Amino acid sequence: MLVLLLACIHSQLATAVSEEWCLERGFDPSNLSCDTCALLEESTTLQSLQKEKNAVDEGDPIDLGAECRTCCQAHRENPILHPGESLRGRYRYALLTYNENSLEQYGEIKDFIERDMDDVLSFKGANRFQAVKSEMLGGRDSEMMMMMGMMGGGGFGGGPPKLMLFEKQKKGGWSEEDEEEAGEVVTLRGWKREDLKDMLMTLLPNA
After folding, report:
1. Phi and psi angles of residue 129, each rounded to the nearest 5 degrees, phi first
2. Strand, helix or coil for residue 101
3. Of 8, 22, 128, 148, which sits most exposed with the smallest number of CB within 10 A?
4. Which residues pair with 56 in a beta bridge?
């Protein structure tokens, strides 16, 4: 649970920075594990140097630990810190649900579905991953969303896309009604398409 919680926090922070921003500071977001950031924060030598620089620098204070965590990938493991451990293939099935009426608000997820989903399916197979339109919105919820749209509160549609990760497979496949049985449920608000693809490629076994 902690891995995906950290991943959600990281994704929200990552929306405010770019890969170039991270690389300029010496952090490669494509390979950086958040465990490595923990090492930076525990280094007394680094903390001392950072404190000295902030004391003489009139600009914004430097916080390497925070910068590192903004760029790191929570679903990656540092092989030095965790020899023999891997998150690869941790889950057996993933289900992405989205509301068709609100998908335009989540352009990165829309791009993933249109551009990247076929790549994921070619490696993982349809028996490991599916993306489906949500059918859960209805009744009073639907009326509420319509009222919010009329009042300028985000337009018609439902909530953000979700990714449900299951630790086992189910005959006939899992559905959004099985959310309570999922090992992890990730709300994909603010996620980048490449982060979502990378996470699925890591956490799901190959076909």
Report:
1. -150, 135
2. coil
3. 148
4. none
